[in-house]
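Whether sequence alone determines local backbone shape is best considered at the level of individual chains. We regard such an encoding as a compact summary of how the chain folds. The sequence in question and its structure tokens are set out directly beneath this paragraph.
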Amino acid sequence: MAQQTIKPPEQPTVQGTPPSPEQQMRSSNFSKNGILSFLLFICLLLLLFTGLLVRSIPQLFTSTATPTLVRGSMLQAQQNEESSTPLSIPGSSTPTTLLLPQGRYLLYEQQNDIYYVPITGGTPQSILTPGYIYNNAVPPIITPSGQLLYSGDGIWLTNIFTGAPTQIATLPPGQIITSMVLSSDGSTLAWSTEPIDGSGTLSLYAGPLTLSQLVYQQPASECPCFRAFAFLSGTSIPANTFLMITDDRGDHNGIRSGLWLLNVRQLTANEPTALLPEDSQQGPLTMMPQSNVLLYSSAEGVVPEPTDNSVPQELSALNYANSLDITTIMGKSPTLQTTHTILPGQGELSNSANYRWVATPHFSADGHTLVYLEFSSDAQKPFDRHYAIYSAQVTVGTHGALQTNKPKLLATSSADFMELGSWVNNHIITFYADNTLYALNVQTGALATIIQTVAYARAVAVVGQGLI
């Protein structure tokens, strides 16, 4: 605003004749009034500029305090929630607002960095992670003691909030880490490596968290190319003895086909035992927490890769499940028990757009709720994908008996790309959709925005007061 100059009004005088005392008094009064008016105007300007400055403080704080390549704040989250939502809830026009518990933080990885941010919104903080290299096949892990376990130029362990990273395993030259799993009690680690150029040996390591050792090795050219999937646990199974391994077919991305069992305590004359044959495109998906319950697919397939970059490049060409099957693994020589089908495979279809695929299935911490994404792909370029979120209830009875109900539609989405993430508690799950991380209550359909990002970000875990 241009500053105005205010002058006191001029009084007429007779040239050559000094003003009378009465005229001098009137002139003095007008001067005082002008000064008072000028001061009042300056005060009003100061009040105006102060108000503008106060309104600008949140924007200045957000733009200067966030780490490079990451932006987001509670203000941005609220604005995003008010303007649009990626979900439509059956029977409701828009989701209701979800109130998230205080004192918890979402860990996520993005562009070769790992961050934590309050789930209620706020400024993300970068975690000190020397040696870290992003790999979609090897997500970081939170140990039962709350430490961050991550991979890159080796295996590292660090405190999320105070730092002090320690390298607990080194990576041989010319190799890349292809898997990393931790036992449910946090005591035993398993990981695998392959040569970067495909020429050399494939190695599996297992053992105490900070003292893992080589347990299996083979030429990388002789697939199945094994990588660690999970430790098998159960009441009748010796703890941290059997490591489930799967075949990545020489692909360093998140490819898993077939399933084998390897006794990591028996290091001589030890060959993997097949649990799921590979010839029918079967592959493991996830394990129920702290149990011997396996979710797998009996029919996997390749989905057309979007040509418009709507899906992150490292995720666009993966195999996806076309069915969901669940079973238990039991016995002194563990084998698959009776299988229950949650979602049947579709077989051969004439139109590729009619296939529905499954992505990122996750069990809640108590194992009772399974949530997964179901999506389809257009038959023509750019092969856009269309997403929906489903849930199914699972009950484990005596002697490992399983009961499942029919999947229930929780929400449909307008997002170009979605991915389910970590659980906040047994009924709230995080998810990523088009450069934003959200939280969804799978019981009520209520939704909250956690943070907006400038690129793809993968949710790693929620830490804080623990799951409820």
Observations:
- Helices lie at 21-65, 74-83.
- DSSP finds two helices and 33 strands in the chain.
